[in-house]
Amino acid sequence: MKLGMTKFLTPFRVIVISYVAAMFVISLLLFLPFSTQDGISITYDEALFTAVSAVSVTGLTVVNVSETYSWAGILFLALGIQLGGIGVMTLGTFVWMVLGRKIPLSQRMLIMVDQNQISFSGLVRLMRGILLAALVIQLIGATILGTYYLNYFDTTFEAYYQGAFSAMTAFTNAGFDITGQSLVPFVDDYFVQLVHMLLIFAGAIGFPVLLELREYFSPKNPNFRFSLFTKIATSTYFIVFGIGVAMLWIFERNAFYDGMPWHSQLFFSLFNSATARSGGLSTMDMNELTLASLLLMSGLMIIGASPSSVGGGIRTTTLAVMFLTIRSFALGRDDVKVFGREIHAEDKQKAFIVLSVFAVGLFGAIMMIAAFEGTGEFVLMAILFEASSAFGTSGLSMGITPDLSFPSQVVLMILMLVGRVGLVAFLFSIRAQEKKTTYKHPTERIIIG
Amino acid sequence: MKLGMTKFLTPFRVIVISYVAAMFVISLLLFLPFSTQDGISITYDEALFTAVSAVSVTGLTVVNVSETYSWAGILFLALGIQLGGIGVMTLGTFVWMVLGRKIPLSQRMLIMVDQNQISFSGLVRLMRGILLAALVIQLIGATILGTYYLNYFDTTFEAYYQGAFSAMTAFTNAGFDITGQSLVPFVDDYFVQLVHMLLIFAGAIGFPVLLELREYFSPKNPNFRFSLFTKIATSTYFIVFGIGVAMLWIFERNAFYDGMPWHSQLFFSLFNSATARSGGLSTMDMNELTLASLLLMSGLMIIGASPSSVGGGIRTTTLAVMFLTIRSFALGRDDVKVFGREIHAEDKQKAFIVLSVFAVGLFGAIMMIAAFEGTGEFVLMAILFEASSAFGTSGLSMGITPDLSFPSQVVLMILMLVGRVGLVAFLFSIRAQEKKTTYKHPTERIIIG
Ligand SMILES: [K+]
Ligand SMILES: [K+]
């Protein structure tokens, strides 16, 4: 019996179950009477959607957070965001450590899986590093933003409270806001936008990258070499960011940007390209964008952030392997090379599976929402936008999410969960026990495409 | 110089160049003054679009064929359809044979590539078989439809003329019509619809399947075994067809089908699921469908027909390998097995590349059309529908193609060409010379998804 249970509870399954459990716990906390403001009540469906959105650090909402939740509710929301952002398993293990116990190997494996790490070595060190990095970055962000917000808010407390929430929501890429207007009030304050963008980058670039950067600048490691993962993830992240900035400018220069000064055009492009890749905060109403830009934003949200980060989507490395494989094919090569290394066949296989499942899944999700909503109330662009936002755990919205029926909202919740857990981890969690093949079938060629 | 030319003119490149050349020749023929009806003139852009649509057997149009082209024009259109449908190279080689020359090996390779065949054996026999099958099936179809059309048309000539064109447009999956109303007048004539569906199947199922069927029923080959290709292509073709029928019924039963007798509901579902997979003829206005059905139809058009057929899209075998790979992964297996055979690693690689290039390409194409069309005149659903129709060489339309700007129409033309040639053949045509790798780089694992 015990053995059967252990066999069932593979690391990937524990991860998924932990996220789901965290979502339900937060939903119950948010549903408590004192979690909402006086005279305001929410349905359990609304509490559940908010909880799923918080733990998956997405930021899509069916209720206006600032007008609905009390102090206690916002605290529970923040708890959900930290749980989901820094990693259910990492926090769980931290508690374990604080309680003075040793970390058993099985537990170490869980963190490895949650943070998507491949090597076992230095796992405890890695986890301490992640927690420390998350804490330090959020503290620095809160201090800078809080101090700067003294210009905006009446009391010192309000300024630092808003600064701390902003730093958290930016670094964890949660995208929630407690002002009710996201960053729209700061549309001309480029300093605030820059700080938020840097925090979004820090969260989305991937924890391994942050830790390797620290090693790189440490005097102890003169021969330090960045891993292939860090090179691919970081370059893909910023190349896609740059393409996003350029294309947004091309699509909007004669539309929304028409007549704006160059620096406004630049910052709208910079901020939108950054926030689509899991951030979710916004300086403008998405409905102002052209159809081409909305498609571009959907694409950026779908690509999402790096693995082992606070973001979602198909992830930067999946996109990179896709493009590297196409490039290899175009150049007439059999192997896929980059940065003087070869991509492992199994990683190519994973990328293919992620892409396939994503394509079928997103298409199916959008078709289901269209079917649930019936006759033509919502246009395809809006449905695609919200679904991409959910899968990329971005949280940007064209505003239709609160108006969708509950079955459609369930579809969005599933997209948020899968987007946060990551398609590979999610698939591993529902995968059958690995089978050793006892004999080979003969291979026969077929015609493709 | 001669050697350099031969080196440049790889079989795949010759195929693509031949299609493009055929498109330009037909466009010039359609642009001749006597190709249009008295008092009607078209621009060269319109002639080019019609020619690309004909040679790619798509059926999207920017002008009303029945009201625009003269007898000569329709003859040129039919020539384009036969060229594109039966295969530029096959017809070319047929001419060569008729002239009494032997087929040189290089020429045989071209047919092999055009019809996407892998083995060299029996190539001339294969080509004769394809031409004979195409001719016989179209003749049978023309006889049945022509005779039956005696009930509908005033003169015997008109009935058989319409019957012959119908049989051609259905078997080649061209989707053009010379009545100006497609099959809408036959919305209650299930016999006409059934004959058209059978012709669409025969064209889209793939030539190798037709030839293997003939061998199977031949008394000469008692031990005949269907190839893996035929098994995968045929089962995928009909499974997707069945899913399409079922889902159309689910999506429309309370919408367009509301209040219809069951047989009307059945035949609308059957015909739409069949025609989306490259046929292009229609018994109804696509704008009557719900958003969910329009998405489903777009998906069916994107999947398209089998390789080595008259259809387009990512092709049935690509979809099959995608699903088989996902299934293998879910079952915890390393190899991809089906029908007691194993899928070759290179075919999996091709499927991955087709899927990747398709995803990026269709997304890019839709974004470009959205950008070209500027501010919100066309909704995303309509753009996606026309783009899917072009790539799947289906030819179904929500009616916006004639209203698109010429740059957007160019995007559709490229999609039609690539959809017809097939992504694999197209990619091989722009691929660099295969390079033997001189040394291996070290492999390094990364984190995916
Ligand atoms: K977010
Ligand atoms: K067609």
TrEMBL record, chains A, B:
Membrane topology classification: Multi-pass membrane protein
GO molecular function: monoatomic cation transmembrane transporter activity
InterPro entries for the chain: Cat_transpt
GO BP term (any one): metal ion transport
TM region positions: 12-35, 47-65, 71-99, 130-150, 190-211, 232-251, 289-306, 351-371, 410-430
CC per GO annotation: plasma membrane
Transferase is among the record's keywords: no
Pfam family, any one: TrkH
Major localisation: membrane
The organism's place on the tree of life at top rank: Bacteria
Keywords carried by this UniProt record: Cell membrane, Ion transport, Membrane, Transmembrane, Transmembrane helix, Transport
PANTHER family: KTR SYSTEM POTASSIUM UPTAKE PROTEIN D, TRK SYSTEM POTASSIUM UPTAKE PROTEIN TRKG-RELATED
Protein name per UniProt: TrkH family potassium uptake protein
